Amino acid sequence: MIRLLDIGLAIPLIIFFAPLLIFIMILVRSSSKGPALYLHKRVGYHGETFSCFKFRTMTIDADVRLARLLEQDPIARTEWMFDHKLRHDPRVTPLGRFLRRSSIDELPQLFNVLQGTMSLVGPRPIVSAEIARYGRHFSHYTAVRPGITGLWQVSGRNNTSYRRRVALDVVYARRKSVKLYGRIVMLTVPAVLLQRGSC
Fold it and tell me: Which of 1, 128, 139, 187 has the fewest beta carbons under 10 Å from its own?
C-alpha cells in the first residue's frame, strides 16, 4: 500500500515541481563549475546500495577540501566524527546553502521514489561509513526504504543527536503504517517552510 502511495504522490509532485526543477538546474550550472545533479552512493532497502539524486550544493573539489579541513582543524574533525556533518562547511556553495536550508536540493529524490530505491517517508539514506552508528539497529534501517522525509525531519532534524536520529528510524521501522506515513507527510510541510533543524 505504501509503495502505491509513493507512486501516486511522486508523479503529480514531479509534474508540479517540473518548472522549479528545470530552473534550479540552470542556476546550479551557471553559479559554479560542475553538473547540476549529484549522484551519491547510499545504503538502502535490504542493505543494497543505490545512487541518491540531489542538486549539487558543493564545489567539485569537495573531497579535497574536506580532507584538508579535517587534517588542519581539530574542531571540525571532532564535529565530523560526531555526526558526519559540519555546521560551517567550506565545501558548500552560496547557492548550495540556500538549497539545503530550503530542502530544495532533495527534490530530485522524487525520481528515486519512482525507481523504488526510496520512499517519500522513511529514514534518511546513509553512507556506508554511517552503518556502524546504527549498530544492532541497522537491520531496522534496512527493513524499510529510505525516505525523502521521516520522523527525524519532523522532529528537529539537525537540532537532534545522531543517537536520537537512529532511535526515530527504529520507531518508524517498527510502527510503519499508512496512518504514520500520512502524518509525517503532513508534518513535513510546516517543518520545511519553517526550516526547522536545517543547515
Answer: 1
Least trusted range by pLDDT, from 2-16, 152-166, 174-188: 152-166
- The pTM assigned to this predicted structure is 0.84
Parallel/antiparallel/unpaired status of strands 49-55 and 147-149: unpaired
Distances (CA, A) of 83 to 24, 41, 58, 158, 177: 28, 18, 18, 9, 28
> Looking only at Cα atoms, what is the longest distance across the chain?
50
Tell which residue, 127, 173, 175, 123, has the closest CA to residue 149: 123
Report the 10 Å Cβ neighbour count for 164: 14
The amino acid sitting at 159 is N
Q: State residue 89's pLDDT score.
A: 78
Which DSSP symbol is given to 92?
Answer: B
Cα dihedral: 31, 37, 38, 42 (round 10): 150
